[in-house]
Write a structure and sequence with these properties.
With 84 residues, the protein is mostly helical. Helices cover 75% and strands 0% of the residues.
Length: 84
């Protein structure tokens, strides 16, 4: 429901501005999509996701014990990224 509302509001605002700002936004998003910075962020996110999935697989497979969930969230993240 929130997505539909956001689309409607965006359409109304875009219609009132004559589309100039929407064209600027479209060009900006296109430029961002092709940037090296975004590619680096996506690559880093993939690496972190792969590490987390490997750890989950090890836990499910019994190769690694289930981490203590009573620990502080920061400690849990450090454990996940191997900084413990």
């Amino acid at each position: 429901m929130k997505v539909i509302l956001a689309l409607v509001v965006g359409y109304v605002v875009g219609a009132k501005t004559g589309g100039k700002e929407l064209d600027e936004l479209r060009r900006s998003v296109k430029a961002l999509g092709g940037s090296d910075e975004l590619a680096d962020v996506v690559s880093a996110a993939r690496i972190q996701l792969a590490r987390a999935l490997r750890e989950v697989a090890e836990i499910v497979g019994g190769a690694r014990p289930v981490p203590d969930t009573s620990a502080d969230l920061v400690e849990q993240v450090r454990h996940l990224v191997g900084q413990d």
